[in-house]
Specification:
By secondary structure, the protein is α/β, with parallel strands linked by helices. It contains 17 helices and 18 strands.
Length: 472
């Protein structure tokens, strides 16, 4: 009796503490889901104006869904007062888009609701857009800010990580790292997006690089490398000349923050920010992102070689199915003398079941090459567990639905604890993502989770601002 009373008291304290916290994107998103009419919904997702996913109710979003959001953002940007819109999809679904616009402000993002057309029937837009739903979208307008350049004045993560402060430099000379932003001709972009056949290579810069005083400890200079993109030649045309990477592609990194003491391994998730045209072709964006990462690794070796560091990229289905990708990557790593350990690839758990043969082939190739693999959205699916035997698999990112609901749902708690303990036996790291609550963070530390990502830990920063770790 006393034990039950104490448990009820602790639960009440947790709920009241969570209620007192300011509402964020996730909490408003959950309220929005509850306000929607009783339909067969596939998912509800929230994006900023650069097509970055801020919150997803369930499942995984593939290239088709991503393309829908890109098109909707372009329509809303061209017609700010167009209001909500509906679009039917060939696979029997319908997408309803709700623009997030602050009063007297520019488009900050949108909400996409995916529903089953057969169940929803006609008039889906009118059924979904109720006054209560509009009120939640207006609440999102207060917390979703238009994506733009991010400024980080300090490192809130307690990582061994140094962020360069441009304002603290003693002179106003442009940084030598600015030479990584290069032109890509419009005709080359069209050829890349139309052919879809890409090769991944690095070659020395043709133009001279601004001279910078070299540190006395450097015995010899490392040749500067720039990313170049070669569309694969067809039978009717000769090999196309090399073209340089698009300046609009920006690489940001989101650190995996250590939740437990010990170890010097550092992990960073690479987030490519492409133009709407680049985002239309996920495979082309993957190649551009890998090229940009390899070029940065070659030009900034001091920033990642002092301690074991891995940069992970989330790959599209098209890239996973391309058997040439890893061969071309191996050639690029060899030419640039970059260790394969520095590069890893994230694969969403649904792809591990839906594209099992392709995923197994890709993981086997990564194991031979020496690159690491991360399973994103890991939920202990029985079909995915055999993949944990691979030596290439070094990290699992738990399904955020498990960790965010762990304080209120016993089954979620049990699954999180089981995942943490199981991967520890296998020597695999475990990470939680989308941590936006101090209560959840404390609990994850208590159960032994290794790494974490989320708004309470760290924000994405430009890869150009990473520097060598401070000495221990």
């Amino acid at each position: 009796m006393h034990s039950a009373a104490r448990h009820a008291h602790r639960t009440s304290d947790i709920d009241s503490a969570a209620a007192s916290e300011p509402q964020g994107v996730e909490s408003i998103g959950r309220q929005l889901c509850q306000a929607l009419p009783p339909l067969r919904l596939h998912s509800v997702s929230i994006y900023d104006n650069q097509c970055n996913v801020l919150w997803l109710s369930e499942g995984a979003l593939g290239p088709d869904e991503h393309a829908l959001v890109v098109d909707a953002l372009e329509c809303f940007a061209g017609e700010p007062n167009a209001g909500e819109r509906e679009q039917r999809v060939e696979d029997g679904r319908a997408a309803v888009f709700l623009p997030i616009c602050p009063p007297q402000g520019a488009l900050a993002g949108l909400v996409m609701v995916l529903a089953d057309v057969k169940v929803a029937g006609d008039g889906l837009l009118d059924r979904i857009v109720t006054p209560e739903v509009r009120a939640h979208v207006q609440a999102l307008a207060a917390v979703v800010q238009p994506a733009g350049p991010r400024r980080v004045d300090h490192d809130p993560t307690s990582l061994v990580l140094s962020l360069a402060d441009d304002d603290a430099r003693g002179d106003s000379r442009p940084s030598p790292d600015l030479n990584v932003h290069r032109e890509l001709a419009p005709a080359a972009v069209d050829e890349i997006l139309q052919t879809g056949e890409l090769s991944l290579e690095l070659q020395p810069l043709a133009e001279p690089v601004a001279e910078v005083p070299a540190p006395a400890r450097e015995a010899e200079a490392v040749p500067q490398l720039a990313p170049v993109l070669h569309p694969a030649p067809t039978s009717s045309s000769a090999a196309a000349p090399a073209v340089q990477a698009a300046p609009a592609l920006v690489l940001e990194v989101l650190p995996f923050v250590k939740l437990r003491a010990g170890g010097r391994m550092r992990w960073f998730e690479v987030l490519p920010r492409g133009t709407p045209r680049q985002n239309r072709d996920p495979a082309a964006l993957d190649v551009l992102a890998v090229q940009g990462l390899l070029a940065w690794l070659a030009e900034h070796r001091d920033a990642w070689t002092a301690e074991p560091t891995t940069f992970t990229l989330n790959l599209s289905i098209a890239t996973l199915e391309d058997e040439r990708f890893l061969r071309q990557l191996s050639n690029s790593l060899g030419r640039s003398a970059i260790s394969p350990d520095a590069v890893g690839f994230e694969i969403a758990e649904p792809l591990c079941t839906q594209r099992r043969a392709q995923v197994e082939r890709f993981i086997t190739g990564c194991e031979r090459l020496g690159c690491s693999v991360v399973i994103d959205g890991f939920s202990f699916d029985s079909a995915v567990i055999p993949l944990l035997r691979s030596k290439a698999l070094r990290l699992v990112k738990m399904d955020p639905r498990l960790t965010t609901g762990a304080l209120k749902d016993k089954l979620s708690q049990a699954l999180v604890v089981a995942i943490v303990q199981a991967v520890k036996v296998l020597g695999i790291h475990c990470a939680a993502q989308q941590i936006d609550s101090a209560h959840v963070l404390r609990w994850l530390k208590a159960v032994g989770c290794d790494l974490g990502q989320g708004s309470v830990l760290a924000r994405p920063v430009s890869i150009e601002r990473l520097q060598a770790p401070a000495p221990a």
